[in-house]
Amino acid sequence: xxxxxxxxxxxxxxxxxxxxxxxxxxxxxxxxxxxxxxxxxxxxxxxxxxxxxxxxxxxxxxxxxxxxxxxxxxxxxxxxxxxxxxxxxxxxxxxxxxxxxxxxxxxxxxxxxxxxxxxxxxxxxxxxxxxxxxxxxxxxxxxxxxxxxxxxxxxxxxxxxxxxxxxxxxxxxxxxxxxxxxxxxxxxxxxxxxxxxxxxxxxxxxxxxxxxxxx
Length: 215
Ligand SMILES: CCCCCCCCCC(=O)SCCNC(=O)CCNC(=O)[C@H](O)C(C)(C)COP(=O)(O)OP(=O)(O)OC[C@H]1O[C@@H](n2cnc3c(N)ncnc32)[C@H](O)[C@@H]1OP(=O)(O)O
Hints:
Helix content: 25-40%
Domain RHA1-ro05818 N-terminal helical: 18-74
Number of helices: 4
Subcellular location: Cell projection, Ruffle membrane; Cytoplasm; Membrane
Largest sheet: 7 strands, antiparallel
Pfam families: 4HBT, RHA1_ro05818_N
Order of helices and strands: EHHHEEHEEEE
Keywords: Apoptosis, Cell membrane, Cell projection, Cytoplasm, Fatty acid metabolism, Hydrolase, Lipid metabolism, Membrane, Transit peptide
Enzyme class: hydrolase
Strand content: 15-25%
Number of domains: 1
Bound molecules: decanoyl-CoA
């Protein structure tokens, strides 16, 4: 991927925040509200008599946003402009309502880590995080770990081991670290822990390949 001028462990200090933290801007506030709506829709009483009106109002908001949307190609150029820290991805993006969002920091030891508490929209088994969501978080975290290490690539393989159910509503620590580079092959590992116990661990193979930014 073309990550632009992404911070690396060589150039930046311990604890550098590598993702775009939510800001006090209209788009981040609107996205946070949409995230709240996603959760509230799952939690509200199924017999809520106002759901028809809710659907109409939400469709009205979507129509307004669509009327103010440029061509997708044009938006993608805008999305990918800047320093390489994305605001739109589905894991850390404060502008993406499906992102928790996870905030990741780069450590002096070469690892990246962040804490996140996942709630109902991310549920798989009762009270537990969906396995695909864990894989999503870790795939992205490994990608950020590669960028922090200074050599990134596309995921070619992600081997996921689910050790124990990952709880909702509890702080989770998500970590990643580049282990080795062999030509274009990059080996990266990561984990999700809760209460100090590993719930999920992954080994990823990434292949160094530059995907150009939209222009
Ligand atoms: C700060 C922002 C951070 C952003 C983080 C974002 C993280 C998100 C990560 C992703 O989600 S990436 C999207 C999911 N991945 C893809 O869509 C990748 C789709 N697959 C491809 O594009 C290509 O198959 C791939 C780039 C992985 C490899 O194609 P190439 O044509 O560049 O590689 P090639 O076939 O020449 O193989 C190069 C070497 O890698 C090996 N290889 C390739 N794919 C492999 C594979 N899948 N498993 C094992 N080995 C593999 C291959 O055998 C060979 O080894 P040798 O050099 O020893 O011969």
